[in-house]
Amino acid sequence: MTDIAELETETLAAIAAAADEAALEAVRVGALGKKGSISALLATLGKMSPEDRKTEGAKINALKDKAQEAVAARRDVLQAEALEKRLSAETVDVTLPVQESGQELGRIHPISQVMDELTAIFADMGFSVAEGPDIESDDYNFTKLNFPEGHPAREMHDTFFFPPGADGKRKLLRTHTSPVQVRTMLSKAPPIRVICPGRTYRCDSDQTHTPMFHQVEGLVIDETTHMGHLKWVLEEFLKAFFEVKSVKMRFRPSFFPFTEPSAEVDVQCRRKDGDIRFGEGEDWMEILGCGMVHPNVLRNCGLDPDKYQGFAFGVGIDRLAMLKYGMSDLRAFFEADARWLTHYGFRPLDFPTLAGGLSG
Ligand code: DAH
Question: Which EC class, in a word (predicted)?
């Protein structure tokens, strides 16, 4: 007869040694299955005397229970181990750097960023965006804006002219965004509140001038708008754009053919180690030109100057970008150097809004 104690030792050792659930099942079948060693032992009870059956039966059943418990306990351990192994194999390493898609690697040029910022700020004040063509007529670029024929102010614009057309008139690359004022007044009845961002061209090139550059024009026309409104709009704009609580402005009398009175606006700043900060300091920096729209311009655009009035302003966008984001050489804006753009550009999904923050 098989020694029960020996069988117990063997069976429990085999259960403990089962490395996985399949091996454990094989051990279970080998001991407790129909033809298993413990079942075979149980089958011997029938041939025993009633006394032996009593004592042996109790021992064999105790062994059976023990083996069943050991199998169940081992199964629990193996299942827990298998789960642990799976979890650690399937772990996602959240510290891995994110692989950026090609789309996210691209950068928004600082000029586009500043245009988006301007648009967000002025849209909040009720302005819409107006546009005009880069190739403009002499009439819209100069004459309607009250630059008389032969006036020296025309010469100051270093204009790129096209050869004369069949009508003998020369088209030109617009030298400022002011002709969009003309187009707006000719096509839209007051009240008018627009900004006109866009490309402008002059035959000029050095560290702070490029033949193509960017301006934004502002125009407000209605029956009551006055210079106080102009000052408020500019102050709100400058505060929002430079993201400061207050700005000090200085209006210097100036001359533009299309405004009367005309002014140039300086903003107080502090220059330190080549850095410029707004909203503090004792220095002044010229930022823009502005004024009340000249009655001749209103008349040239079909508006009655006795009924309508308003203001206009013009700002260099490139200069605004340089001042806000600390870029010193304007020419780099147009060199399409991917390294420069990676450094100074903006992430495409960080669109500037007043609510979410302009510059992120
Ligand atoms: N057009 C001017 C320039 O390019 C800028 C300017 C000044 C625009 C005063 C305006 C203004 O609308 O009122 O130099």
Answer: ligase
Query: How many Å from the N-terminal Cα to the C-terminal Cα in the chain?
Result: 85
Given the CA of residue 311, which atom of ligand 1 is nearest to it?
A: 13
What residue owns the CA closest to ligand 1's atom 5? 314
Chain segment 20-46, per-residue pLDDT in tens? 999 999 999 999 988 889 888 888 888
284 pLDDT higher than 60: yes
Report how many domains make up the chain: 2
Buried b (16+ CB within 10 A) or exposed e, 66-75: ebeebbeebb
Q: Are residues 125 and 18 in the same domain?
A: no
Dist. CA 178 → ligand 1 center (Å) = 6
Distance in Å, CA 289 to ligand 1 centroid: 5
- Worst-scoring range by mean pLDDT, 23-37, 176-190, 219-233? 23-37
pLDDT in tens, 333-345: 888 898 999 999 9
Whether the CB of 201 sits within 6 Å of ligand 1: no
**Which residue's CA lies nearest to atom 12 of ligand 1?**
313
* Residues 168 and 24 placed together within one structural domain of the fold: no
Residue labelled with tokens 């209103």: 298
Exposure of 240 in the CB half-sphere (CA atoms within 13 A): 24
Q: Are 164 and 22 contained in the same domain?
A: no
Full residue range of the structural domain in which residue 127 is found: 109-344
User: What is the 312 CA–ligand 1 centroid distance (Å)?
Assistant: 8
Does the annotation flag 235 for ligand binding?
no
> Is 312 near ligand 1, meaning CB less than 6 Å away?
yes
Residues 32 and 120 in one domain: no
Residue with CA at minimum distance from ligand 1 atom 7: 289
Q: Identify any residues that bridge with 289 across adjacent strands, giving them in sequence order.
A: 264, 314
The answer to whether the CB of 213 is under 6 A from ligand 1 is: no
Residue 282 sits at φ, ψ, to 5 deg, of -120, -10
Last residue of a domain, one of 89, 122, 140: 89
Q: Mean pLDDT throughout 160-165?
A: 93
65 and 210 both lie in a single domain: no
